[in-house]
Design a protein that fits this description.
Layout: E1 3-5, E2 23-30, E3 34-39, E4 44-49, E5 53-57, E6 61-65, E7 69-73, E8 79-85, E9 87-94, H1 96-99, E10 107-110, H2 113-122, H3 125-128, H4 131-147, E11 150-151, E12 155-156, H5 161-172, H6 180-187, H7 191-202, H8 206-223, H9 228-234, H10 240-251, H11 255-259
Helix pairs in contact: 2-4, 6-7, 9-10
């Protein structure tokens, strides 16, 4: 069973963002069985892990986030966090009036080499002791967030309890090859009803949703350096070529190219 932490356990007095310090860094090292209960913030949060993998869930979507990615969580959005692999979590708390970022929904974004180094520098003793340097680093972080690439890797979640049971079971076991006919007696609905619910609630088909879910799970496996053949087998694909072909059809890039961390050309700290 996961070790549930309330948000109270992670509060650090004096670390709220302010007009003079619009970006604050909270560093936490969490074990793989930890989970943060559902909570909200009065500020925006940029949740990034230097190492490890987390799953962030809201009422209608869940995301699997490896180190080369991060998630932007606007103020007021209720979210829970599960630690899938021991994580060095680095959360940026951002003053809403300073961000310039979209506030309508969570977003998974690309973490460039520059952004990664800026986050590390913001937490260094040298920067924390120098208000002028902290302001410069914070401004660069906000600018880098504004130009970061948004990635469509979330998995929509349903409201119907039967469909939610199916989706959550697949998230826990992405390699499952069960058909809708096989899922039907397990969740208490006919295959026809489940197919209709996928269409009405998630605007997709069962096969398309399962494909998106598997792609989300591929991210941490590729980030760990797993060979693509092993990733394909872990996620239930018959071969590496089948996995790679499906991936390229969806995203227009090979898995290795898509998940490789990027550096914005021509940008220097």
């Amino acid at each position: 069973m996961p070790r549930i932490l309330t948000h109270h356990h992670l509060n650090t007095p004096g670390y709220d963002p302010s007009p003079t310090r619009p970006v604050r860094l909270i560093a936490r090292d969490l074990e793989h069985d930890a989970a943060l209960s559902a909570h909200t913030h009065r500020w925006h949060q940029f949740l990034y892990t230097a190492t490890g993998v987390v799953r962030v869930s809201t009422a209608d979507t869940t995301w699997v986030v490896p180190p080369s990615r991060a998630i932007w969580i606007p103020t007021g959005i209720t979210h829970a966090v599960a630690i899938l692999e021991e994580a060095h979590m680095r959360s940026l708390y951002v003053l809403p009036s300073a961000s310039g970022m979209p506030t309508d929904a969570c977003r998974v974004i690309e973490v460039s080499h520059l952004l990664r180094e800026l986050i590390a520098d913001l937490g260094s003793p040298q920067t924390e002791a120098d208000p002028g340097r902290e302001r410069l680093v914070s401004a660069l972080i906000l600018d880098e967030l504004r130009v970061a690439e948004t990635l469509r890797v979330g998995m929509a979640l349903p409201n119907d309890k039967r469909l939610a049971m199916l989706c959550n079971a697949l998230i826990e076991e992405p390699s499952s090859a069960r058909t809708l006919d096989e899922w039907a007696p397990l969740v208490g609905a006919s295959a026809r009803t489940l197919a209709r619910l996928f269409s009405e609630e998630l605007n997709t088909t069962f096969a398309q949703w399962r494909q998106q879910m598997r792609l989300a799970h591929a991210a941490p496996l590729v980030a760990r350096g797993w060979p693509l053949a092993r990733v394909a087998a872990e996620l239930g694909y018959s071969s590496q070529s089948a996995f790679s072909a499906m991936f390229k059809r969806t995203f227009g890039k090979s898995p290795s190219a898509f998940f490789a961390p990027k550096q914005a050309p021509g940008r220097r700290l």
